[in-house]
Q: What sequence folds into this?
């Protein structure tokens, strides 16, 4: 009996390993050198797979491109793909599997803050490295994460003054999904709104995934606000913009200015519902540069969908692989997580959105804030952008400024946080 | 105040729209149909697909979704549910399985995505449904502007409820359904073809969910998981209203909708949801059979 069970375990383990290694075997045969294994950890199933699939595709596309050009110093990158299944606990288990069993020096992955927080202990305890592509709420200073999405100040620090100055708006209604990201974003919003001489009339939340906006939009209508600042996330966005228009509100009188609404949600809700509203992101599909147009073309060819849209977190998923490859090429055989982090810190790259640089102090990314107004064709028309990338400040909600960094190579200065 | 009450009414009508089919299948057949939410989802996808491939208008999608969901419901009854009558927990698990299968069928484009084939309008992504212009804005009522689309939902719900009432209480098949609801064996002994009645009831309940799906697709997000949360709301209404009671479902959805709307207006949506669930718990504790249950004989 025990023998049977053991041989059963062995055969299933072998079958599992075979299934995982299969794509890697092909690239190894093709390039004939010892591959560099990396983890790719996004949700392939579950509610969040809608977005996370595109992040995984962008990551794999970058890996395929690098391999097609001869890999990293002759060595192909071999992705080990795991499914987080839209569940933070599964993310934690899969991260452990990648770090402990597969011994990868780097993992590309996670979309939501919940999943990042769930895997963070694994990477810190094992001193491994995570490349995290999403715009997020800040308030984190880890030596084991490279953050390539925007920090709150990169979305809001130009956006809110711009709303007040260029749109002439004075009264903000802040609305968001009820979890950490929108709540932290709201803190940054309030600081910026007050610093720029405007006021906020309400700060309201709805459950994540909630799609019944009747009461909230009615509240917005009667609140006397002249602009809505939305940190609403995911599929709720679609129902929100539709209800907004259905209750007779228009973006030219009362615009929605969003920190999260991207090309994905616009395509789903129908462009006419969003036309005239604004979003602030470092990347839009509509960025008018040769590099970006070529990127969009390549992505559409890669996923075999001529209408696929590109968006900010997805573009970060793409260029962060190149940042890794640049660092790995310098290191040769000494590919440890520590060495990769030190090589990535301060490194630069020409991404589809423009020039990006990893901040050597806090390991977040220098990005160029852009503001776009959504058009009737579902694309954002860029109405304002800074001339150069700005420094990421993950603690801007707590008073961090460029002159007074909270998060440095020495770690988080928690004394500053308490002030 | 008018607009707050209107939103409450609208929330109630949406609850009723989803619960209408459930109250019949659960009441008549004693089947906990966890796949009911997926019938709503199929209705929504019927709207997406008929718009894409037939160029059909949103309104034309209503009969299409009615037929498609009804046919799929009939198929589920024929394949699975009829083998499980009288086994309440088994129906729950089996239909839950069906729900997952249906979700994945849509997400994986019936498995074709494994072969690299993509069907427009299916897959894991969010879908876009085009709503006719006259349903997008507002209409004036009692000195305030009300939401045209929500008014349309209320109208459709009223028509479906009236039609269901007519079928149940004014036709011979309705009388048979009610007989089966009260006492299955006695109805069979009186010569009613219980199997046929069950199949028709299940198909009709599913078809109603399909129409609910068309309505949802116009103002909520269409994606494979969309039905999962709706089935919870549907059961809430059925349990509060009383199993198998059409009037109970109408009353319960109206009450819960207005509570939700009023509390949300006074405080916020998160608290409103808690108050609604609290009300449901109180009702079940005080009246385990619901507000309007008939007495068995």
A:
């Amino acid at each position: 009996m025990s023998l049977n069970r053991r041989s059963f375990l062995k055969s299933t383990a072998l079958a599992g390993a075979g299934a995982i290694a299969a794509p890697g075997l092909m690239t190894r045969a093709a390039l004939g050198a010892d591959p560099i294994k990396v983890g790719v950890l996004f949700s392939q199933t579950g509610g969040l797979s809608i977005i996370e699939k595109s992040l995984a595709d962008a990551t794999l596309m970058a890996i395929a491109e690098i391999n097609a050009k001869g890999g990293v110093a002759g060595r192909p990158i071999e992705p080990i793909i795991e499914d987080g299944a839209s569940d933070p606990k599964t993310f934690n288990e899969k991260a452990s599997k990648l770090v402990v069993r597969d011994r990868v020096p780097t993992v590309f992955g996670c979309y939501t803050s919940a999943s990042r927080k769930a895997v963070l202990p694994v990477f810190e305890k094992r001193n491994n490295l995570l490349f995290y592509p999403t715009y997020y709420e800040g308030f984190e200073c880890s030596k084991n994460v490279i953050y390539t999405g925007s920090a709150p100040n990169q979305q809001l620090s130009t956006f809110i003054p711009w709303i007040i100055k260029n749109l002439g708006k004075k009264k903000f209604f802040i609305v968001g999904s009820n979890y950490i990201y929108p709540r932290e974003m709201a803190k940054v919003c309030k600081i910026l709104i007050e610093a720029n001489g405007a006021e906020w009339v309400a700060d309201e939340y709805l459950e994540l995934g909630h799609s019944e906006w009747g009461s909230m939009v009615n509240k917005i209508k009667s609140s006397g606000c002249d602009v809505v600042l939305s940190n609403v996330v995911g599929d709720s966005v679609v129902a929100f913009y539709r209800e907004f228009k259905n209750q007779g509100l228009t973006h030219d009188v009362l615009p929605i200015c969003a920190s999260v609404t991207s090309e994905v949600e616009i395509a789903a809700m129908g462009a006419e519902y969003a036309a005239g509203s604004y979003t602030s992101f470092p990347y839009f599909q509509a960025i008018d540069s040769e590099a970006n147009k070529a990127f969009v073309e390549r992505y559409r060819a890669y996923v075999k969908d001529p209408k696929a849209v590109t968006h900010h977190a997805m573009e970060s998923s793409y260029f962060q692989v190149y940042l890794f490859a640049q660092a790995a090429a310098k290191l040769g055989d000494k590919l440890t997580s520590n060495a990769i982090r030190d090589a990535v810190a301060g490194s630069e790259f020409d991404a589809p959105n423009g020039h990006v640089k990893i901040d050597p102090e806090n390991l977040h990314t220098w990005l160029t804030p852009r503001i776009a107004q959504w058009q009737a064709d579902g694309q954002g028309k860029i109405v304002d952008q800074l001339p150069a990338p700005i420094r990421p400040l993950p603690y801007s909600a707590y008073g961090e400024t460029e002159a007074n960094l909270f998060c440095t190579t020495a770690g988080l200065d928690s004394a500053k946080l308490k002030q | 105040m008018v607009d707050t009450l209107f939103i409450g009414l609208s929330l109630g009508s949406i609850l009723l729209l989803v619960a209408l089919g459930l109250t019949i299948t659960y009441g008549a057949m004693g089947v906990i149909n966890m796949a009911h939410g997926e019938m709503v989802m199929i209705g929504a996808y019927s709207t997406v697909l008929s718009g894409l491939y037939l160029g059909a208008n949103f309104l034309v999608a209503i009969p299409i979704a009615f037929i498609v969901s009804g046919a799929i419901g009939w198929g589920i009854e024929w394949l699975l549910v009829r083998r499980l009558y009288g086994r309440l927990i088994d129906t729950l698990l089996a239909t839950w399985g069906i729900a997952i299968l249906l979700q994945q069928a849509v997400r994986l484009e019936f498995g074709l995505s494994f072969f690299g084939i993509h069907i427009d309008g299916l897959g894991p992504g969010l879908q876009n449904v085009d709503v006719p212009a006259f349903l997008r804005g507002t209409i004036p009522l009692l000195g305030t502007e009300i939401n045209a689309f929500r008014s349309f939902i209320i109208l459709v719900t009223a028509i479906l409820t009236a039609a269901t009432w007519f079928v149940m209480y004014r036709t011979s098949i309705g009388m048979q359904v009610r007989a089966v609801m009260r006492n299955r064996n006695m109805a069979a002994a009186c010569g009613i073809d219980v199997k046929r009645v069950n199949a028709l009831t299940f198909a009709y309940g599913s078809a109603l969910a399909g129409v609910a799906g068309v309505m949802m697709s116009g103002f909520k997000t269409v994606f494979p998981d969309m039905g999962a949360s709706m089935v919870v709301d549907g059961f809430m209404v059925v349990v509060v209203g009383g199993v198998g009671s059409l009037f109970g479902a109408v009353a319960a959805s109206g009450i819960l909708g207005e509570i939700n709307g009023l509390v949300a207006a006074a405080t916020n949506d998160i608290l409103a949801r808690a108050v609604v669930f609290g009300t449901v718990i109180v009702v079940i504790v005080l009246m385990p059979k619901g507000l309007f249950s008939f007495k068995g004989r």
Observations:
- The CA atoms of residues 406 and 413 of chain A lie 5 Å apart.
- The longest strand of chain A covers residues 199-206.
- The mean pLDDT of chain A is 88.
